[in-house]
């Protein structure tokens, strides 16, 4: 059961949205679902060695990982646990080394911008997660010098800390996301991010052709409307509980889930999107479709993302990425 704080924050330290009047009622209903899932997960994990990847576990993950098991399952399914165990003391050694002043400066700038409404990240609170957040980002910047630090990484590290409550685990989960699950999203050229925006555009043409046709009227539109969706992995775009459910699948199944979410939002809201008559209309519409009861009911929303877009294999995504990537490289080298 999710317990709501008397000071108006949710289980993760975020302010409870005032616009959603039935928040507590909805969370209590979802709490019943979580309790049921929690018992099933406890039974599945009881006395087992590291969890195997199979259809049963995949089905369990898609139905949601309870918070008490979330950190463990994310670590194991993403390969982060294996990396942590293979590199004892590595995270601490990164923090102990001499730091790049430029890296320190850019991270410092974003500290106060990271979840200012979350009680866990306020400097007046002891212990504040800001110190842990700074450490994770600094260590990762030294570990992956090709990326260093990029805006958006602060939000990802923040969510990881909220769930794991552990700097070292958060560091290795960052490594799994940025190094393996989302290649080239955060590199200076952001080629992976640009590629996935193009892939989404092509998928929309196939799975929501009327919207695809509308979007062709506005060159570069996908960068404007979905870059934040992808680079922040839906943080501050969708409700917290919904984002965490998406991340359950992201760590277990890989990045194709990001496309499933985007396609579901677009297909579900086709009538509203097709009413757009200008670039500004489209941008406003894409902001509004992420809000409201459809995305707040995370359990129903997650059922929809695996039904609404139809078949979408990782092999298909990989093939489309190769094609779009080559197209972007050719355009940028003209």
Write a concise keyword list for the protein shown above.
334 residues; mainly alpha; 65% helix; 0% strand; globular; GTPase activation; small GTPase binding; Rab-GAP_TBC_sf; Rab_GAP_TBC_domain
Layout of helices and strands:
Layout: H1 23-45, H2 55-62, H3 67-78, H4 80-86, H5 90-96, H6 101-111, H7 129-143, H8 153-164, H9 167-181, H10 191-207, H11 209-215, H12 221-231, H13 240-253, H14 256-268, H15 270-274, H16 279-288, H17 293-296, H18 298-305, H19 314-332
Helix pairs in contact: 3-9, 4-9, 5-7, 6-7, 7-8, 7-9, 8-9, 10-11, 10-12, 10-14, 10-19, 12-16, 13-14, 13-18
Question: What can you see in these coordinates?
Answer:
May act as a GTPase-activating protein for Rab family protein(s). Residues 64-254 form the Rab-GAP TBC domain. GO terms for molecular function: GTPase activator activity; small GTPase binding. It holds the Pfam family RabGAP-TBC. The chain is mostly helical and 334 residues long. It is 65% helix and 0% strand. Helix 5 (90-96) crosses helix 7 (129-143), helix 7 crosses helix 9 and helix 10 (191-207) crosses helix 12.
């Amino acid at each position: 059961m999710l317990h709501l704080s008397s000071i108006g924050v949710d289980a993760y330290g975020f302010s409870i949205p005032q616009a959603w009047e039935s928040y507590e009622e909805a969370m209590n209903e979802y709490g019943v679902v979580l309790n049921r899932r929690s018992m099933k997960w406890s039974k599945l994990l009881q006395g087992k060695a590291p969890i195997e990847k199979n259809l049963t576990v995949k089905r369990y993950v898609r139905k949601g990982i309870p918070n008490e098991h979330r950190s463990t399952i994310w670590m194991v399914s993403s390969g982060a646990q294996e990396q942590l165990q293979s590199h004892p003391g590595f995270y601490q050694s990164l923090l102990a080394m001499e730091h790049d002043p430029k890296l320190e400066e850019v991270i410092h700038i974003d500290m106060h911008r990271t979840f200012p409404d979350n009680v866990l990240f306020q400097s007046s609170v002891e212990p504040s997660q800001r110190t842990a957040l700074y450490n994770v980002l600094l260590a990762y910047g030294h570990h992956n010098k090709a990326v260093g630090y990029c805006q958006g990484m602060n939000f990802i590290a923040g969510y990881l800390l909220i769930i794991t409550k552990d700097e070292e685990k958060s560091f290795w989960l960052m490594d799994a996301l940025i190094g393996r699950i989302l290649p080239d999203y955060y590199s200076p050229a952001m080629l992976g991010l640009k590629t996935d925006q193009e892939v989404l555009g092509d998928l929309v043409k196939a799975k929501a052709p009327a919207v695809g046709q509308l979007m062709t009227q506005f060159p570069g539109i996908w960068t404007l409307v979905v870059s934040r969706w992808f680079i922040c992995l839906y943080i501050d775009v969708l409700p917290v509980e919904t984002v965490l459910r998406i991340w359950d699948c992201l760590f277990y199944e890989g990045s194709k889930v990001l496309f499933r979410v985007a396609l579901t939002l677009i297909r579900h809201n086709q009538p509203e999107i097709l009413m757009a008559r200008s670039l500004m209309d489209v941008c406003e519409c894409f902001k509004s479709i992420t809000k409201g009861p459809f995305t707040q009911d995370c359990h129903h929303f997650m059922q929809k993302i695996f039904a609404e877009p139809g078949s979408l294999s990782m092999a298909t995504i990989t093939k489309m990425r190769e094609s779009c990537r080559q197209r972007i490289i050719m355009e940028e080298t003209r």
